[in-house]
Amino acid sequence: MVVNDIFAALNVDLSAWKGDALTARSPRDGATLATLAVDSAAGAERKIDAAHAAFLKWRTVPAPLRGELVRVFGNVLRENKDALGRLVTLEAGKIRSEGLGEVQEMIDICDFAVGLSRQLYGLTIASERPGHRMMETWHPLGVCGVISAFNFPVAVWAWNAALAFVCGDPVVWKPSEKTPLTAIACQALFEQALRRFDEAHPGVAPAGLSQLIIGGRDVGEALTRSHKVPLVSATGSVRMGIEVAQTLSKRLARSILELGGNNGMIVAPSADLDLVVRAVTFASVGTAGQRCTTLRRLIVHRSVVDQLLPRLEKAFASVKVGDPLEGDTLVGPLIDRGSFDAMQTALAEARKDGGQVTGGERVDVGHDGAYYVRPAIVRMPAQTAVVERETFAPILYVLVYDEFEQALAVHNAVPQGLSSAIFTNDMREAEQFMSAAGSDCGIVNVNIGTSGAEIGGAFGGEKETGGGRESGSDSWKNYMRRATNTINYSRELPLAQGVKFDV
Ligand code: NAD
C-alpha cells in the first residue's frame, strides 16, 4: 500500500500540503513518500493567531461538551486505526504491531480525556474567617504549543491534544520534520471529527481549534517565542529542550519538557530470569532502540550475569530484523543514516573503553538508503562517558554489581532520569528501589521493563529528561490555570491573620 492509497483510505486530501521544501522519506527503504511545502515563521504566526481566536470561544464551552468532541475524535481514530497505523510504519519505520499500538494509545487518551472532562475538580478549603468560603477553580489556559519527535509521531500529540481540548485549550502542533505525513493525517482526521461534531452541535467548536505547522526548528521557534502561547509541551532531545526552555523562560511561559532518557534496569540475584530475558529484549530492541524509554543500561548481579548474558545474546541474535510491514519482524529500521552513524560511533567508543561488543552491525535488506542493524549488547568494565550518554539506537550496555547499594548508585549516576526497573523477588530491594532513596526517575517499575507505559499514569522524568509530566493522573493541571476564590457571605469584613485596619 503506497502513501496515496493510505491517504485515500483515510479520506484525506494531501494535495493542499504538497510543495518542494521538505521531503518525507520512509526509513523502510529510503524512498521518497512525498514532497511538501513548509510554513514560514509568518505563516506559523497566522496559525497561532487563528488558534488564539478559537481559544476566546472554546474556553466558554462547558467542559463535558468539549469532551464530546474528543469522544467523536476517538471514534474517528477507531475507524481509521489500521490505515493510520500503517502510515506510522511507513514513515517512522515502526513494526506493524507498534504502529497500531501508537494509534491505540491515541484512542486510550481520548477515552481518558472524555472522562476527565467531567472531573476537572477544584478543592474547597476551610477559611479561617467566619462567614467565608474558599475554593479553587480551574480555567482554560490558552493556546498549547506541541513540539514532537519522530519516534512517537502521533501518540505524543494526542497525549497533549486530547487533554488540552477538554481543558479548553486550542493546540498548535509542530511535528518532527522527519514525520510530517502522519501529522497531516492526524490533523485531517481531527477536522473530520470537528465536522461530525458540528452536525450535532452547530457553531460550538471553532474552526481554528487545531493547527498544524510543518517545518524545522525555525517554525518551532515561532511557537516558543509567541506571547499568545502560554504553554509549550516539547518532546525531543535534551539539546532541543534546553533551547526551548531558554526561550520560554525569557517570557516566563510554561513548559512541559519530555526529553532524552538513559534508562537502567537492576537484575538482582532473586530475579526470575525467564521474565528478565523477555522484558530486556522488548525494552532494548523494540522500536529499534528508538524509544525515550528504551532500556540502555543493564546492571546485573555478579552471581547471575554469566547465566543471563548468553541467553540475552541468543535472543538479540535471533530477533528478526527487517521490513517493518512484515508480520514476523521485531526490529525495523533506524530512522536515518545519522542514527546509524551515531550508533557506530558509540560502539567504537565503547570498544576503546574496554567494552566487549556483540552485534551492532548493519543488516543488508537490499535498500542502500535504509539503515537496519543487529541490536548490540556491550559488556562494559565500568559506566564510562559513552554509557552516560543517550545513543538513540539499540545498544544495551551491561554492567556488573556486587552490593545492592552499589547497583543503585550506578543506576542513578547518569544525567537523565526517565524510566527505570528492577527485577527482584526480594521485597526489601523492590521497596528500596521505589523509595525516596531509590531510583531517581519519573517511572520506577518492579518486574516490568522500562518501556511501554500505559496512559493512565503521569508520564515523564527528572534531571535532564526535563521534569515534565503528561498523559494520565493529574497531568491535566498543566493545561489549566488555577484561581483561588474567597467568598464573604457575612456582614463583617474580617482580615486574615487577625490584622486590624479600621477606617
Ligand atoms: P529532536 O530534538 O531532534 O527534535 C524534536 C523536535 O524538536 C522536532 O520537531 C524539531 O524540529 C524540534 N526542534 C528542534 N530544535 C528546536 C528549537 N530550538 N526550537 C523549537 N523546536 C525545535 O529529537 P528527535 O531526534 O526527533 O527525537 C529523539 C529524542 O526525543 C530522543 O532524545 C528521545 O529520548 C526524545 N524523546 C523523549 C520522549 C519523552 O517523553 N521523554 C519521547 C520521545 C522522544
UniProtKB/TrEMBL annotation:
Aldehyde dehydrogenase domain boundaries: 22-482
UniProt keyword NAD present: yes
Keyword Acetylation: no
Keywords recorded for this protein, A-Z: NAD, Oxidoreductase
SUPFAM superfamilies: ALDH-like
GO function term, MF aspect, one: aldehyde dehydrogenase (NAD+) activity
UniProt-listed Pfam families: Aldedh
InterPro entries membership: Ald_DH/histidinol_DH, Ald_DH_C, Ald_DH_N, Aldehyde_DH_dom, ALDH7A1-like
Family: Belongs to the aldehyde dehydrogenase family.
Complexes and interactors: Homotetramer.
Protein name from the UniProt record: Aldehyde dehydrogenase family protein
Species of provenance: Trinickia dabaoshanensis
